[in-house]
Amino acid sequence: MPTPTLSNRIQLVQGDITKQAVSAIVNAANSSLLGGGGVDGAIHRAGGPAILEECKFLRARKYPAGLPPGQAVATTGGNLPARYVIHTAGPVWHGGSQHEAEELAACYQSCLKIATARIFESVAFPSISTGIYGYPKQEAAAIAVREVRQWLAAHEWPQRVVFVVFDEENRRLYEEALAEQ
Ligand code: AR6
């Protein structure tokens, strides 16, 4: 079989991340790990109570002060088509001077690190921080694409990354970021 090129290993899909049949989907969570709105709410609704149970356990045992910024942790995918959920808490946008870009990049790296260590075949990412947390979408897309490309160039696993965008604007911005760099 020919070696897949980097661009073959990255896909862009517009739709609902909870429907993705991948090894793991990433949740744009918050440090409490106890659920919320946006994609976090959608994942817990679709995945059922097993995800929240594991999140509560992790919160109590491993992260009593909350999941630190830029870190990630995996749980079951419950009833989702994806076997696992990787939870990460993106930065809240405060204008860009409070290390938001570094923190967002760290989120992507931490999720990918878990995927590599656990030999996940495929991972789907939402556009972390670009909803309720208010991160400018164009900058966030550029960081997402840059971090995933760098990681895949250096690691065999995950073999495939899917960017799942919800809205038309993000779809266009990711298309541009993927075409550009
Ligand atoms: N599939 C894919 N993308 C989605 C979906 C979905 N089902 N639903 C929303 N998006 P957000 P944040 C997109 O607000 O900005 C929660 O309360 C959405 O259009 O979900 O990181 C958490 O608990 C946007 O582009 O996450 C935190 O408190 C992107 O997902 C806080 O929100 C992220 O939007 C995190 O805020």
From TrEMBL:
Residues 1-181 form the Macro domain. It comes from Hymenobacter monticola. SMART domains: A1pp. This is O-acetyl-ADP-ribose deacetylase. InterPro entries: Macro_dom (IPR002589), Macro_dom-like (IPR043472).
